[in-house]
Structure formats: structure tokens, C-alpha cells
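RECORD TYPE: inverse folding
INPUT: C-alpha cells
STRUCTURE:
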């Protein structure tokens, strides 16, 4: 009887955990759907809400990872529980002591005799391995576990950065995982006593007098069991429908014709593509997914838009950072070959969309991570050209950190134009930009030192001199906090995790406890 009570409460606990996990799965699928076209509109809807609420949209990948960790944890618990359960099934089937467990295990599997079995192990010589690979629950469980292991191991940062194709293809094993989850319970391996059998005799009382089940004078009869109906499909149905709708929408948008109007090869193996697409509309800081069918039919890679909404085209800058990008750049470098066909899906929303909601904005780009800020700075240039007086932002601090001097070249023209425009309008102090070179040698430093007195920087041709090394963030934040003692400062980063950690700490350190004084809000680009 004690085992019955324990099993009852364990079942209740397991059901509660299972329902909670499926709620996580549903919300996760919803957020991934919102990351598509509606993500942009959700930002607009939440535009009147607090910054804290809006910023939660930017943590959808973090939430996705937390859900994955929860799935792994509960999968491990589920498997361990089944291992103990099957061990108990096996020992009960082998038992010949006439105990309650052995009698319940001997109930017939023959459908002609009612099929009221409780133990999935039919014969004494049947192994656990045989049941695992011949039952629906066991086989789908093995498939789902293998799929989950491959998805998790290939999603590590090293694999994603170095072997993106491996990550991309193995992550789509979730289709087999979801299908397995939907049919996992069809075999009815989880069984319970029928309602009619319970009414004929109280389970607790009849369990104590199991020797009298076959006695015609006894009020207890042999219990009848039946498989519980599968429930998991109810919880995955809504996310699956949302996912299918998203895929249909993305497929429709990707099939719209994209016209490449200009191709520019910049130093440091950076390719610029300027394109047009009917009905395409964007905001600053957004990104698109790009596919090149001649390289791969299935691979879609995210790239931040570097054009401004005011321009009559949209553009991206692609740096060689893997097999796919290298093949794409190589395809566009071939002079006597036709231009490869490009498919575009998007645009999608990011944290940088909110940059004009802050009085003071701090933009930090590392390497090619400067791309979202190119869009922002271009848009500012156009706003000044049109004398837009509705611009809420009064000051921008821009930091660009690069390893080599060649990376600065493609961005120089934009910064030069901004410098000239600020001088014409008398707003020289609006943009404060700093360029940092982390990969340098004594020759570069010596050359820069000899030409330090010149009006423009010898490396970039800009009025602002290039700094060598990395920014001293404590000094930078302290200066900003002193210059804007009562402002709300938005800090935007497109760069590595280590840099994000440093900037997030500085935001907390230099934000005043008094909400009426300077407050720093950290925002990071997530793809």
C-alpha cells in the first residue's frame, strides 16, 4: 500500500513537471515565431511599455537555451526513471515467489483474453533491450534521445563558430524529436486500472488479498488494466502549427525576386552587396537571412543591414568567416561568370531598433560587428540632411574595435561624410567616435607617431586619431556619466561575449541608484 501512495504522488509530480515543460516549449515556439516578421510589430506594440519589458524580447535566444537545458534535464530524469522501472519489471517477471508483483506481471498479453497486461515484459527470457527496440515507446525514446544529444552537442559555441553547417543540419533533427514526442505514448506502455475494475473492488484492500482474486466467493476480482491515451500531441500541436505558419511565410518571402544593384569588394575580404526587393521595408539595426542556392539550398545565414531606411536600396557587408561566406565571396569575385542568385528573408528586429529612444547612445562594434551601427549612422546623416527636428537622441558615442587597419577602410567614407555634415550644421559635438586598433606592430605605431601632428589620421584619413589597444571602459563610462548626469543612456553592442560581460558590469556600476539621475541600459545583438 505504501508503494501505491508513493507511486501516486510521484505520478502527480511527474505530470506537473511535464505540463510545465510543455508550457516552456509552447512559449519558446511562440518567441521563435515572433522572431520572424511579427517580432518587429511586437516591438512597436510594446513601444509604449517600459524599457525593461521591451528588452525581454532580446533575450529570446537565452530563453531558447534555458528551455533546451530544461528538456535535457527532464529527459535525463525520464530515462533514469525508466531504467529503474524496467529493472523492476524484469525482476518482477523473473520472480516465482507468488508475490503481488509476480502475479501482476503474469497477466496475459493476449488480446483474445482481454489483453489486460501491466508488465511490458511478456516472457521471462525477454530482455530489457528487446522491449526497448521493439516497442513504440522504447524505439521513439531512443530516436529522440539520439536526436537531442546530437542537437545539444553540435550547438556548442565552438561548433557553431567553426562548423556552422554541422550545427545547421543537426539542429533540424528537432523534426524527428517532435514526431517521436507525438507518437511516444501510442503504445500504451503507461497503464492504469480500468474504472470498471476499480468499482468492482477497492485497489488498496484487494491488493492485500491478491491470493483470493480467483476465488468466486471473494469480493475482489482480478484487476483489469488499460493503456493511458497519449497526451503529448495536445501540447506540441500549437507550437507545430506556429512553426509551419512561419515556414510558409518565410518560404513565400524568400521566393520574391532580389535584384543585386551593386557589388563592392572591400579590403580584409569584406563583400558589400546592394540589393532591391519589391515591398522591402526596414528599420535601423535590423538583419536579414541570406541564401545562395548555388552554394547551398538549405543554408540561411543572418547578416545585419548596413543601409539606412531612407535609402532606395538595402545592403549587407559579408566578411569571410567560414566555408559558406568564403564560397560566396569567391563566387562574386569571378569576373566572367554570371552573378549568383540571392534569396532574402526578412528583415527581423533587434535591440538596435530602440537606439533613437535614448537621449544618449553608446555604440560599440567589434570588427564586422560595426554593421548595425553603419545603418544607424547613415540614418542620422539623412535625418540631418532633411532637418528632422523629432530626433530624440542628442549625443552619440561610437567605439569601433578592429584587429587590422584594412577593416577601417570601407567605413571611412561614411564617417568622413558625417564629420563634414556635423560641421555644416554646427553640431560637431553630436557624434563622438573612437577607433581602436588591437592588432598592431612597432612599424605602425612609429609611422603614426611621426605623423601625429597632421590634421588627419595617417591610418584612416579621419580627423579623429586611431588609438592603439583596447578602450578603458571604466574611464569611458565615468566620463559619460559625468557629462550626462541626468540622462538615460542606451549602450548597444555587436561583439563577443567577453566584451558584453565587461560592458554589462560597467552599466550596473555607473548607473545611479537615484532613478532621476544617469541610468545605463545594456543592449546586445543576438542572432
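DESIGNED SEQUENCE:
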Amino acid at each position: 500500500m505504501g508503494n501505491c501512495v508513493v507511486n501516486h504522488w510521484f505520478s502527480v509530480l511527474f505530470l506537473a513537471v511535464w505540463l510545465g515543460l510543455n508550457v516552456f516549449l509552447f512559449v519558446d515556439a511562440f518567441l521563435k515565431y515572433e522572431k520572424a516578421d511579427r517580432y518587429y510589430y511586437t516591438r512597436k506594440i510594446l513601444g509604449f511599455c517600459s524599457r525593461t519589458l521591451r528588452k525581454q524580447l532580446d533575450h529570446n535566444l537565452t530563453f531558447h537555451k534555458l528551455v533546451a537545458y530544461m528538456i535535457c534535464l527532464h529527459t535525463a530524469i525520464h530515462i533514469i526513471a525508466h531504467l529503474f522501472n524496467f529493472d523492476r519489471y524484469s525482476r518482477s517477471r523473473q520472480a516465482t515467489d507468488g508475490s503481488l508483483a509476480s502475479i501482476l506481471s503474469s497477466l496475459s498479453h493476449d488480446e483474445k483474453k482481454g489483453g489486460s497486461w501491466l508488465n511490458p515484459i511478456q516472457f521471462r527470457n525477454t530482455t530489457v533491450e528487446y522491449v526497448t527496440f521493439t516497442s513504440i515507446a522504447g524505439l521513439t525514446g531512443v530516436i529522440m534521445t539520439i536526436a537531442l544529444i546530437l542537437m545539444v552537442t553540435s550547438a556548442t559555441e565552438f561548433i557553431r563558430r567553426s562548423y556552422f553547417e554541422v550545427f545547421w543540419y543537426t539542429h533540424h533533427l528537432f523534426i524527428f524529436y517532435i514526431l517521436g514526442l507525438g507518437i511516444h505514448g501510442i503504445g500504451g506502455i503507461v497503464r492504469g486500472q480500468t474504472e470498471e475494475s476499480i468499482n468492482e473492488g477497492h485497489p488498496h484492500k484487494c491488493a492485500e488479498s491478491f491470493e483470493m482474486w480467483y476465488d468466486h466467493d471473494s469480493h475482489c476480482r482480478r484487476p483489469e488494466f488499460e493503456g493511458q491515451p497519449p497526451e503529448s500531441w495536445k501540447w506540441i500541436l500549437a507550437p507545430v502549427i506556429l512553426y509551419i505558419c512561419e515556414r510558409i511565410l518565410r518560404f513565400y518571402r524568400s521566393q520574391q525576386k532580389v535584384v543585386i544593384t551593386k557589388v563592392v569588394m572591400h579590403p580584409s575580404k569584406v563583400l558589400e552587396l546592394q540589393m532591391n526587393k519589391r515591398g522591402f521595408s526596414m528599420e535601423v539595426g535590423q538583419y536579414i537571412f541570406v541564401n545562395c542556392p548555388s552554394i547551398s539550398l538549405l543554408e540561411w545565414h543572418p547578416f545585419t543591414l548596413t543601409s539606412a531606411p531612407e535609402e532606395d536600396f538595402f545592403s549587407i557587408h559579408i566578411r569571410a568567416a567560414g566555408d559558406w561566406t568564403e564560397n560566396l565571396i569567391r563566387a562574386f569575385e569571378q569576373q566572367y561568370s554570371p552573378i549568383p542568385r540571392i534569396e532574402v528573408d526578412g528583415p527581423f528586429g533587434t535591440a538596435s531598433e530602440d537606439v533613437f529612444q535614448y537621449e544618449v547612445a553608446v555604440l560599440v562594434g567589434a570588427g564586422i560587428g560595426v554593421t548595425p551601427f553603419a545603418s544607424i549612422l547613415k540614418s542620422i546623416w539623412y535625418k540631418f540632411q532633411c532637418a528632422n527636428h523629432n530626433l530624440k537622441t542628442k549625443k552619440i558615442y561610437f567605439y569601433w574595435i578592429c584587429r587590422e587597419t584594412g577593416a577601417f577602410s570601407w567605413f571611412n567614407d561614411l564617417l568622413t561624410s558625417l564629420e563634414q555634415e556635423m560641421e555644416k550644421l554646427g553640431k560637431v559635438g553630436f557624434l563622438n567616435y573612437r577607433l581602436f586598433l588591437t592588432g598592431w606592430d612597432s612599424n605602425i605605431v612609429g609611422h603614426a607617431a611621426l605623423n601625429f601632428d597632421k590634421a588627419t589620421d595617417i591610418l584612416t584619413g579621419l580627423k579623429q586619431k586611431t588609438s592603439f589597444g583596447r578602450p578603458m571602459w571604466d574611464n569611458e563610462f565615468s566620463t559619460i556619466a559625468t557629462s550626462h548626469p541626468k540622462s538615460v543612456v542606451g549602450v548597444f553592442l555587436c561583439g563577443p561575449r567577453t566584451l558584453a560581460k565587461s560592458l554589462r558590469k560597467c552599466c550596473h556600476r555607473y548607473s545611479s541608484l537615484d532613478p532621476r539621475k544617469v541610468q545605463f541600459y545594456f543592449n546586445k545583438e543576438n542572432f
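NOTES: The domain at 351-441+460-524 is CATH 3.40.50.80 (Rossmann fold).
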